[in-house]
Amino acid sequence: MDRLQSLEVFIAVAEAESFAEGARRMGLSAPSATRGVKALEDRLGVRLFSRTTRRVRLTDVGTTYLEDARHILAHVQAAEDAASGAAANPVGELRLTCPNEFGRIHVMPILTEFLDMYTRVSAEVVMLDRVANMVEEGFDVAVRIGPLPSSGLTAVRVGTVRRVICGAPSYFERHGYPQTLADLTGHQIVSASAAGQITDWRFGVDQSEVVRLKPRLHVSSVAASITAARQGWGLVRALSYQVGPELQDGQLQSILTGYEPAPLPIHLVHVEGRRAPAKVRTFIDFAKVRLRSAQILQ
């Protein structure tokens, strides 16, 4: 097993936290993967993994080496792409991460159109309602909603979304419209968060106004909370893109718009900057045009 292949095996085992699964991903037998990693550890003179009967974990040295190994392989791939022409022609697997609902509503239609146009590209989409570490988790592109921290990543702004409170006309017929933030405490509230029940809603451009609520219903799915609101059961707070169609056709109505926080920016983020492979650069250019044209994201 040559040095590059041993790096690929090491990365596969680290990501899978299993020699058997890492070997399967590489198309190797488990003993071959074990020998490859052992040879790498012997050459380096360090232990990259701590092994138990149930799991394989990276050592501190292994964690640092994993990031270096990914960079090494990325540079090798970039050199090969440049030599073969792939740097100018989209080819290979595109790994993308995005929030669940944004992915379902906006990313998937764009991505399938992109794949139809560029037939030498395949894609894996991982929808997560958390911020993934692009380098450690091996993503090419990420959709980020909200302010971006300082980093070495390249970001392309494609729109904004608002945080809106809405309910169905049938709900307002029975319970009336809240006129102030304090009025919300007397209404049926649906809370939606995979991270647990949210009881504090913040308002104002700087989010300095806080209303503490006691939701009667909490669900871990945003889509389910919107369904409850659409059926007239209660009020829900969501991002504007999540309820865009319902607001447009009148199934839901937004309220207290004058108290909304500042809009949240949406960015497409990638790692390699100008050195990104064609599959990444082409997808960014393709997706930004379609996202910027979506009125819900303006």
Keywords:
five-stranded mixed beta sheet, Arc Repressor Mutant, subunit A, 3 domains, elongated, D-Maltodextrin-Binding Protein, domain 2, alpha/beta, 298 residues
Describe this structure as you would to a colleague.
With 298 residues, the protein is α/β, with parallel strands linked by helices. The protein folds into 3 domains: 3-84, Winged helix-like DNA-binding domain superfamily/Winged helix DNA-binding domain (Arc Repressor Mutant, subunit A, Orthogonal Bundle); 92-158 and 267-297, D-Maltodextrin-Binding Protein, domain 2 (3-Layer(aba) Sandwich); 163-259, D-Maltodextrin-Binding Protein, domain 2 (3-Layer(aba) Sandwich), CATH 3.40.190.10. The protein contains 10 helices and 14 strands. The chain has helices spanning 3-16, 19-26, 30-44, 60-84, 100-117, 134-137, 169-175, 222-230, 244-249, 278-292; strands at residues 49-51, 56-58, 92-98, 121-127, 141-145, 154-161, 163-167, 189-192, 200-203, 209-212, 217-219, 235-239, 253-255, 264-270. The strands form 4 sheets. Strands 4-3-5-14-6 form a 5-stranded mixed sheet, with helices on one face. It has a 5-stranded mixed sheet with strand order 11-8-12-7-13. Helix 5 (100-117) links the parallel strand 3 and strand 4. The longest helix has 25 residues, at 60-84. The radius of gyration is 24 Å and the shape is elongated. The model has no long low-confidence stretch (mean pLDDT 87).
